[in-house]
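Here we describe the complex-level prediction in full. Unlike the single-chain runs in Section 2.1, the three entities below were treated as one system.
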Amino acid sequence: MPLVRIDISKEASTALVRVIGEAVYDAMTALANVPLNDRFQIVTRHERDELVFPVEGYLGNAYSAEIVFIQVIWVRGRSTEVKKAFYKSIADAIVEKGSMRRQDIFISLVESGREDWSFGNGEMQYAPD
Amino acid sequence: MPLVRIDISKEASTALVRVIGEAVYDAMTALANVPLNDRFQIVTRHERDELVFPVEGYLGNAYSAEIVFIQVIWVRGRSTEVKKAFYKSIADAIVEKGSMRRQDIFISLVESGREDWSFGNGEMQYAPD
Amino acid sequence: MPLVRIDISKEASTALVRVIGEAVYDAMTALANVPLNDRFQIVTRHERDELVFPVEGYLGNAYSAEIVFIQVIWVRGRSTEVKKAFYKSIADAIVEKGSMRRQDIFISLVESGREDWSFGNGEMQYAPD
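The structure predicted for the assembly as a whole is:
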């Protein structure tokens, strides 16, 4: 069910983008009760001036042009502890496998309901709450 | 009020993209109480490796590189029955008029409030609840 | 915390896009209790047929190909009055500094929780409610 938007520089390598997508999927299935094969991701690449971040940093984080914005839309109900572990797992995997700066990994979650998804075929696959 | 994001391959024809946009708009106005002319849609086209789906399929659906992701942001309050009919209507119209694979139509809904919209002019046009 | 998506024509000038981004950031910090330097924005540029609006207009607004879609994802809790002032401030600044048509400024808000954000480093920086 999660729909993931990954917005990143045009200069990022294909290998890094793949690492990011895998990190998000792996964290979802390992930690956040997302079913296997529930992997739907939209990557959009941007010119340098199209990804805007504060050059002064924010909350102690400093950002570079290699920033990646990860937006996850998924069904509500994950706990704060799960979300904390989810953020950490994504950053750990991207830094380890993609050699990215840890501070450049921005994640935003948006929640919806079980009835807010059609995975194809014009059907509502999930039973509503 | 709905804002619709349509993410699709760069190889999709202009005619197909138009069919998809019309299918979403028609389903909204016919079934989901969306006013006439409330049609705001953002199309983003992607390289093949930028639209990620499970090659193993999910919930019995199999996907191809022709997958389209339709995200609808609209005011909360539509019933489960309306959403079911909405999904079916969109898929029916796209398959009939666009010759697309029915399983490649992915839809995700996100809800907001009546006060969360400005349709131009710097104003909040809808009275809040 | 806010994540802002700005979708606009490929023909819009870099200067105008900068004005729009600054208008949104300035309105957030001045009116909506957003902290200084909390500025994260994603710009996506589109071909003419990728930004769809009703040629008949909607709610008395008429649109042109220079339409800009501004989507703001932020933490819930802003009042209706704040949102009204937010819309007006953005439109005022863009019209004044960017010479844009006031009716072409479309704004959509989406709300999430305090725990739904990681500003980098794999951490949940905001304490949950």
